[in-house]
Every structure is written in C-alpha cells, then in structure tokens.
Amino acid sequence: MARIYTKTGDDGTTGLLYGGRVSKSDELVEVCGDIDEAVAALGVARAGCGDTDRDLAAMLLRLQREMFVVAADLAANPRQRQRLVSGESSVSPEMVGGIEQTIDAIVSERPLGSVFVVPGTTSTEAHLDLARGITRRAERHAIKARTAGRPVDDHVLRYLNRVSDLLYVIARHSVGDAEEPSSHE
C-alpha cells in the first residue's frame, strides 16, 4: 500500500518539480498554497452547479486544471525550467488569450454594472467571489515572490490577473436576473 506521507517534509522543506527542495515558507510555496485554496474554492462552486449549469461546471473544471499548470510553473526547479511544457507545466500565452476570449463573450452577453456589488446573492456567486479573492491573493504573492528575486513568468502573472477578472464576471453572470446589493446605498 502506498502511503500519503513521505516524512521528507518533516524538516520544513518541500520538493520542487524536477528536483531540489525549498523551505515551506518560500515565497513561491506561498503562492502555490494560494492556488491550492483557489482550486478548492472553485471545486465548491463547481459542486454547487450540479446538473443545472453544466456549462459553468465545465468552465470551472477547466480553470481548476489550468491552475495546476500555474502551480507547476511556479514550483519548477529554476535550473530545470527548460523541461516545462507550454500549456501543461508552464502557462502559455494561449491560456491567457483563452481567458480573455471567455471574459469578452460573457460580458457581451451580459454587460457589467457600474458599481461594486456585495457577494452573497446566491451560493454559487458567493463561492466564485471567494475563489476570486483567493486568486487575487495568489497574484499579489506571485508579485511579491518576483520582487524577492524568485522566478515568476510574465504569463503566470497575466493568467492570475485574468482569472480573477473572469471569476468576477462569471459570479455576476451566475446570479441571473437577481439583483445584487451594491457596495453602497
């Protein structure tokens, strides 16, 4: 029987993709933790779709899978980045472009309002906004890691920024005709 625990992280380190170890407090590990949270929050939103919104569930599953690509890109041994595969273990320009196309299509179907809204009109919308907030944190932590000298690809930053925009758009879209409360009276 394979065991989930390896005990190799008991010293406070974690393994990198393609070898090497870093502290679990490393800036890039922090971003990967944020991405892990975002994937889980997207899973909660997807589970809430049930059979009623299969298109949204499929989109969320796609985003979850793409977030694994983001994590692989960030968690790769810097000396082994040439081994990354575009779209599989490194974020590609096409991934960013696909998110932009999805945003544009949704906004053209249902334009956004001009005020900030308070999440919680529906369960799905609230979960999407939670995933958006976590993704924004991942983006901030990725910028912080890059500022500290860690290798963070431009495509990763663009992707995280676009995904949080997309999550905002689909959260608004997911409420249908229900009126969301504005951030001010």
How does this structure look, described?
The protein has a single domain (24-174), classed as Up-down Bundle (Hypothetical Protein Ta1238, Chain: A). It is 58% helix and 3% strand. It has helices at residues 27-49, 54-75, 93-109, 123-147, 154-174; strands at residues 13-15, 21-23. The chain has a two-stranded antiparallel sheet.
From N to C, what is the helix and strand string? EEHHHHH
The neighbouring-strand order within the major sheet is 1-2
Architecture (CATH level 2) name: Up-down Bundle
CATH homologous group name: Cobalamin adenosyltransferase-like
Structural class: mainly alpha
How far is the N terminus from the C terminus?
A: 59 Å
- How confident is the prediction overall: mean pLDDT? 92
* Low-confidence sequence ranges: none
User: Could you say which overall geometry the principal axes of the C-alpha atoms support?
Assistant: elongated
Domain tally: 1
Amount of helix: 55-70%
CATH topology: Hypothetical Protein Ta1238, Chain: A
Short description:
By secondary structure, the chain is mainly alpha-helical. It has helices spanning 27-49, 54-75, 93-109, 123-147, 154-174; strands spanning 13-15, 21-23. The protein has one domain: Cobalamin adenosyltransferase-like (Hypothetical Protein Ta1238, Chain: A, Up-down Bundle), CATH 1.20.1200.10.
Defining traits:
185 residues, mainly alpha, Hypothetical Protein Ta1238, Chain: A
Question: What's the arrangement of secondary structure elements?
Answer:
Blueprint: E1 13-15, E2 21-23, H1 27-49, H2 54-75, H3 93-109, H4 123-147, H5 154-174
Antiparallel strand pairs: 1-2
